[in-house]
Write a structure and sequence with these properties.
By secondary structure, the protein is mainly α. Helix content is about 65%, strand content about 0%. Helix 5 runs antiparallel to helix 6. It starts with a helix and ends with a helix.
Length: about 180
């Protein structure tokens, strides 16, 4: 099923590029899936990592994900899919709330996604410095609010012993990227 999801996500994101680096977009869902797999999550969660942006950023629907990969994968993907009819601030506040109240699997998917995004930002900062924030619709202060909000919400309601190690790495990355 993993290979099927990998091919599906690659095809869905065909022609898309990452915002900052310009690299092939598919590298991002592949990284998210790798983070989840290395943390020991189930195949469904890893597959959701591969597919986490297809409903939000392509013509693929949640119903299609459910038909191809089952209701559990579809529910995980949809828990992370932003409603583009809302403002950026509303969408990000909703994501923070999902991280706070979601299941460990939902939290893990979102944090893995944000961790990979921050890794790309940190890499770009090595050559662009603070100018990296010009790549975003919302600049440094709002990006800091968002990524810090995820960090503050991610541990809520979960036994600390159940949290994957990359949650700690995410917190360190937030501190590194958003120090002035």
């Amino acid at each position: 099923m993993y290979e099927k999801a990998k091919a599906y996500a690659r095809a869905a994101h065909e022609g898309q590029k990452r915002k900052i680096t310009g690299e092939i977009y598919f590298s991002h869902p592949l990284n998210v899936a790798r983070i989840l797999r290395q943390a020991g999550f189930s195949e469904d969660v890893v597959i959701a990592g591969l597919l986490h942006d297809v409903v939000e950023d392509t013509v693929v629907t949640g119903a299609e994900i459910e038909q191809e990969f089952g209701p559990h994968v579809a529910a995980l993907v949809l828990s992370h899919t932003e409603n583009k009819a809302l403002s950026w601030e509303e969408r990000k506040a909703h994501t923070i709330e999902t991280v706070r109240t979601g299941s460990l699997e939902e939290k893990a998917l979102i944090v893995a996604d944000k961790y990979d995004n921050l890794s790309s930002i940190r890499y770009a900062m090595s050559s662009e410095g603070h100018a990296v924030w010009q790549h975003f619709k919302r600049g440094y202060d709002l990006q800091k609010w968002y990524y810090t909000g995820v960090a503050k919400a991610m541990r809520y309601g979960v036994d600390p012993r159940a949290l994957p190690a990359y949650f700690d790495a995410y917190e360190r990355m937030v501190q590194t990227v958003f120090k002035k």
